[in-house]
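Renewal narrative, Specific Aim 1. Our central claim is that a sequence can be written position by position from structural information alone. The example that follows is taken directly from our test logs and has not been curated for this report. It begins with the C-alpha cells describing the chain, in the order in which they were read.
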C-alpha cells in the first residue's frame, strides 16, 4: 500500500512510463551529430532550455487587399448605359423617373379617393347608429308604457276578483 501511495504523491516525477509532451518534443537541433558523442553532462545542459520552450508554427503572411476608401469626388451612381434593343438588359422592366412620377401621382389619387369613400361610408354608419339608437329609445319608452298598462289592468282585475269573492 505504501508503494502505491508513494507513486501518486509526486505527480511530477520523471520516471513515468508515459513520456511527457516536453520530453517527446525535445529535439536537439543546436548541436551537430558529431557533438552528441560528448559527455552526458553537456547534453543535459543543452536540452534543458529546449524543454521549457516549445516552438510554434509560423503564421502565414497576407497581402493587403488595399483600402476601401472612396474619395468624395467619385461618382455615387454608375452612369446610365445605352444597350442595343435586342439586349436583355434593355428589355428589363426598368422605368424612367417620369413614369415613376406618373405612377406615384395616380397611386396617390386612388388612395385619396379610397380614403374619401371610406370616410363617407363611416359617416353613413355613424348616422345609421344614431337612427337605430333613437328608435331603440322610442321602443323602450313604448315598452315601458305597455308594461305600465298591463300592470294597471292586472291590478284592477285582481281587485275585481277579490271584491267578487267577498260578496
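The sequence written for that structure reads:
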Amino acid at each position: 500500500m505504501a508503494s502505491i501511495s508513494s507513486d501518486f504523491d509526486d505527480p511530477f516525477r520523471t520516471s513515468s512510463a508515459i513520456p511527457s509532451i516536453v520530453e517527446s518534443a525535445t529535439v536537439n537541433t543546436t548541436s551537430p551529430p558529431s557533438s552528441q558523442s560528448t559527455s552526458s553532462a553537456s547534453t543535459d545542459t543543452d536540452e534543458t532550455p529546449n524543454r521549457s520552450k516549445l516552438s510554434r508554427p509560423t503564421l502565414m503572411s497576407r497581402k493587403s487587399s488595399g483600402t476601401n476608401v472612396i474619395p468624395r469626388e467619385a461618382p455615387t451612381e454608375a452612369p446610365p448605359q445605352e444597350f442595343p434593343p435586342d439586349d436583355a438588359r434593355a428589355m428589363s422592366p426598368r422605368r424612367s423617373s417620369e413614369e415613376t412620377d406618373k405612377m406615384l401621382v395616380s397611386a396617390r389619387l386612388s388612395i385619396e379617393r379610397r380614403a374619401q369613400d371610406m370616410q363617407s361610408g363611416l359617416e353613413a354608419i355613424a348616422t345609421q347608429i344614431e337612427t337605430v339608437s333613437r328608435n331603440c329609445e322610442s321602443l323602450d319608452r313604448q315598452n315601458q308604457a305597455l308594461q305600465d298598462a298591463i300592470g294597471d289592468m292586472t291590478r284592477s282585475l285582481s281587485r275585481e276578483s277579490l271584491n267578487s269573492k267577498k260578496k
